[in-house]
Specification:
Order of helices and strands: EHEHHEHEHEEHHEHE
Radius of gyration: 16 Å
CATH class: Alpha Beta
CATH architecture: Alpha-Beta Barrel
CATH superfamily: Glycoside hydrolase/deacetylase
CATH topology: TIM Barrel
Strand content: 5-15%
Structural class: alpha/beta
Helix content: 40-55%
Shape: globular
Distance between the termini: 10 Å
Number of domains: 1
Number of helices: 8
Number of strands: 8
Length: about 200
């Protein structure tokens, strides 16, 4: 999936979390970059100050379900709506003026019904174009080997219009990688937060 323009969108999933989300936000601020945060509802509820900071610093939000339920699409419609509504409500309780224009299914496990339900709730479903797979420690290890993998994955695969998937929840190697990647990306692409209202341009 792409942004529909030449701009590149960085997306960070599974937060907010106090261990690394503030440091990701610091990096983005220091580089003058806006991003999109796909947040877990229970984390938004637990760490409202981080939700407020994300909002106040001009980043956009994506609903990533209440507890990262990989099987959400298998639930009945009422359960799906309750889950997504609870997540959006947790974001808005912390930042009442925040718009939640996007939905990303955990693991990317979308189906047509899930996309339609999210759409009826005012959210555009987003996938990604570049997956850093910064969680796959069994394959890429930790520390330097993971950092090198993340850097090379982004550098080799990012194109104009890419949506890049990374994580801010308990991923120190992602933080290290982006200390290098943000200046590299900024020198080559226009980096944007996805429009808060969910209106993606169509290529």
């Amino acid at each position: 999936m792409v942004t529909g323009t030449s701009s590149v969108a960085l997306t960070f999933d599974d937060g907010p979390y106090p261990e690394h989300t503030p440091q990701i936000l610091d990096l983005l601020r220091d580089n003058g970059i806006k991003a999109t945060f796909c947040v877990i509802g229970r984390n938004a509820h637990t760490y409202p100050d981080l939700i407020r900071r994300i909002h106040n610093e001009g980043h956009s939000f994506c609903n990533h379900t209440w507890r990262h339920d990989m099987d959400l699409r298998q639930k009945d419609e009422g359960a799906i709506r309750d889950d997504l509504a609870a997540t959006t409500n947790a974001i808005r309780e912390a930042a009442p003026s925040a718009k939640v224009g996007y939905f990303r299914a955990p693991g990317g496990y979308f189906d047509a019904r899930l996309i339609n339900i999210a759409g009826s709730m005012g959210m555009t479903s987003i996938y990604w174009h570049v997956d850093t797979r910064d969680w796959e420690f069994s394959k890429y290890g930790r520390g330097e080997t993971m950092v090198n993998h993340i850097v090379s994955s982004v550098q080799q695969n990012t194109r104009p219009g890419s949506i890049v998937l990374s994580h801010d929840n308990l991923k120190p190697d992602t933080l290290t990688a982006y200390r290098y990647l943000l200046p590299w990306l900024k020198a080559r692409f226009t980096l944007i937060a996805l429009p808060p209202n969910g209106n993606l341009a169509r290529p």
